[in-house]
Write a structure and sequence with these properties.
heterodimer, A: Aspartate Aminotransferase, domain 1, Aspartate Aminotransferase, domain 2, 15 helices, 17 strands, globular, B: 139 residues, Sufe protein. Chain: A, 2 strands, 12% strand
Amino acid sequence: MSKFAQNKRLLFDVSLIRSQFPILKTSLGKYPLIYFDNGATSQKPECVITAITDYYTKDNANIHRGVHHLSQIATEKYEQAREIIRKFLGARYAHEIIFTSGTTAGINLVANSFGKLLQPGDEILITQMEHHSNIVPWQMVAEEKGLILRYIPIDKNGELVLENINDLINTKTKLVALTHVSNALGTINPVEKIIELAHKQGAKVLVDAAQSLQHFQVDVQKMDCDFLVFSGHKIFGPTGSGILFGKEELLNSMPPFMGGGDMIKTVTMEKTVYNDLPHKFEAGTPNIEGGICLGAAVEWFASLDLKSLAKHENELLQYATNRIQEIEGVEIYGKAKNKSSILSFLIKGTHPYDIGTLLNQQGIAVRTGHHCTQPIMDFFEIPGTIRASFCFYNTKEEIDFFIEALKRAVKMLKE
Amino acid sequence: MSIAEKEQEIIEDFSVYSDWMEKYEYIIELGKDLPVINEEYKVEENIIKGCQSTVWLYAEKLNGNVIFTADADAIITKGLIALLVSVLSNETPDEILNAELKFIKEIGLQEHLSPTRSNGLVAMVKQMKLYALALKMKG
């Protein structure tokens, strides 16, 4: 029986879930913390915090190198984490799991390495709702290699417009890179459908899962994506940890991105023979603690009943979406039918910065601004939004307080 | 009134308010008294960089003193820049450059002080001092 076996029973007692997150017991002045910035980063459960302390207290050593006891322990735990993540993603092999420093690093790795295999005139397809980290690396490689970067547009609801998809994905398309869930709008994209279309044209697909894995189960084999990237810190793990999943065959065909220790078999002054997967893509001493503790986070998360979590998050979203209508002049951005627990909005006659500041005064953490998605803001012709992003440890009572706080802020600003 | 005296006055004004709401209501009120920048100066080059809301700031020299005018699209930001303008405007470049502006911390606005905070007072203060320096050089 897994050490978290009791967690399945804990659900859906939100208070028991909350009790595992020390930070949720803190206050800002007289107000208890209400953390609605989960899209930016998630809070950490006790077991992850303990794993971080345990690593430095008991296991700290460099990995894949020493014959000594500690190095072997650290190596073993690091590789166990890789296996936990393989199982969580449903990948075929552990060596398809590459440790990175986060989503951005994973995308840059693919852009640089896979990008080397591309020829001038080849096309890369992204979408209009990508985070800057899934736009800029492609612009860089496109410029360097003479590639053509195209995008799938969005509509007023914040959904992808797939009308011209058969033109956008064509025989020249070599890679489609798209987000699973929009960080600014909450839209859940039909990635399976796009993967199928891309594969018919011989194109590979990279899925940015930074905003999806912490909300619902993803199986990379069923999804059939070629690459999938995510950040550890958004899925209850430490910052500076992350994963690139890639299909074995593809990763083997790609040149290394960074050179250095651990990624080599032999080095002479004339030539280097690269190491096998996954080490080929893991040059230098990695974030060992980050990797091990991401394993701890994923193990904990996978022990929960993910379906009931998703149901609770969806209820929170629906509840907040309904209640926010009580405020005059509210406009929601992101009205997709299939939506994750992200509520992006503006209130007519107020600036998001003012609202964010006044909510902060009442203990509420939201994100304001363009959310690193300026093309989305340009599409809606707005400078930014206020974004409340919910996690399963949030409650309806917190949303009630948030709505009252919002009303108070609007009243202050409009008087 | 010297910069230090103006600062003292602000500290006394703020000491009346214990509640954050009153404090912010006062900041919002201050914004209404801001000497507003002339429309012709509301251009890209007068925008203070690195802010989440847009702040325009302009300065000119009159009788040896620097006169600031500004505007912002967010109300609280407008109040914050108004607060700074009320302290630093109509002072000599040297006085502006030497101002320590201790009042910011004393009135409990240190949360706006972090240099990385997207609408930090730091960027505003820096820009005002840059103007003072430029106008000093100009003679």
